[in-house]
Amino acid sequence: MKTQVGCKRLVRIAAWTGMLLAGAAVTAPAGASTVTLNGSGQMYWTAQFEGTSSGNAQTTPTGSYGNNYALSVPGQYSFLDSFSQQTNNLTGPGTTSSVGPYAFQDTYVFSLSQAAQGDALVVSLNLGQSASTFYDISDLQFRLYEVPSSTTQPGLSIPTGSTIIQSWMGTSGPSSGNPVQASFSNVQSGTYFLDIAGIADGSLGGGYVGQLNLAPVPLPGALWLMISGIGLLGITGRGRSSRFAGAGSGT
């Protein structure tokens, strides 16, 4: 039984690692712009912050990074990143979390043109045993919030006027190889920030993969009945008009 579980985990890790390597190989012209994804595709971080020995630092985007995304609903969108070993945490305002400290924060910026529901999940590519992990992200966590304007810039603090969809949630300490997941419902059209954070503390660093799933918000039952009733009234009205027109032409 343990052998079967171990094999399944190796297969899962191999698949995630393949995603990470494939994503790392994809490049696009540098420069911030809005990328439209229709139903599927990979998102790259819009902004990245890392702790250094001299304080917090923001990474300069290159290649595919630095863009934001217009996402269609429904859709399934992936995201991922990898790091060398980190030893300095981010500090200062906006870096406090009940899950634990973190050395990096990747922010993915996306917009929706309609209401949606769905879920987000992220998992560390955990390789090695707990006592000698060589590739892992500890304190892996994420949060999701709507910002007040499409021109709002990412930072370590949640901007004033934002609406929190999901506050920091994740796994404290070394990862278990299981995904961190949260569902959300009835988010409206607007601009959203998805922050991923943690500490790549394996001897060779660490990496994560994740997915954002979006689905349309179903119409409430009462509203559906009202719309159906309006449609039925329209059909009945057209039928009566036809009968009246026929009666008039016969006189």
Relevant terms:
globular; single chain; eight-stranded mixed beta sheet; alpha+beta; 2 domains; Jelly Rolls; 2 helices; about 250 residues; disordered N terminus; five-stranded mixed beta sheet; about 40% strand
Q: Which structural category fits the helices and strands?
A: alpha+beta
The Cα radius of gyration reads 24 Å
Alpha carbon gap, first and last residue: 87 Å
User: What is the CATH C-level name of the largest domain?
Assistant: Mainly Beta
Q: Which fold name corresponds to the CATH topology of the largest domain?
A: Jelly Rolls
Query: Proportion of β residues?
Result: 35-45%
Helical region count? 2
Overall mean pLDDT stands at 82
Q: How many domain modules?
A: 2
Q: Tell me about the biggest sheet?
A: 8 strands, mixed
By DSSP, the count of extended strands is 13
Question: What would CATH call the homologous superfamily of the largest domain?
Answer: GOLD domain
Verbal overview:
This protein is of the alpha+beta class and 251 residues long. The protein folds into two domains: 2-218, Sandwich (Jelly Rolls), CATH 2.60.120; 220-251. Helix content is 21%, strand content 39%. It has two helices and 13 strands; from the N terminus they run H-E-E-E-E-E-E-E-E-E-E-E-E-E-H. Strands 1, 3, 4, 5, 7, 9, 10 and 12 form an eight-stranded mixed sheet that branches. Strands 2-6-13-8-11 form a five-stranded mixed sheet, with helices on one face. A hairpin with a 2-residue loop joins strand 3 (47-52) and strand 4. The longest helix has 29 residues, at 221-249. The termini are far apart. Mean pLDDT is 82; it is low at 1-14, 20-30 and 222-233.
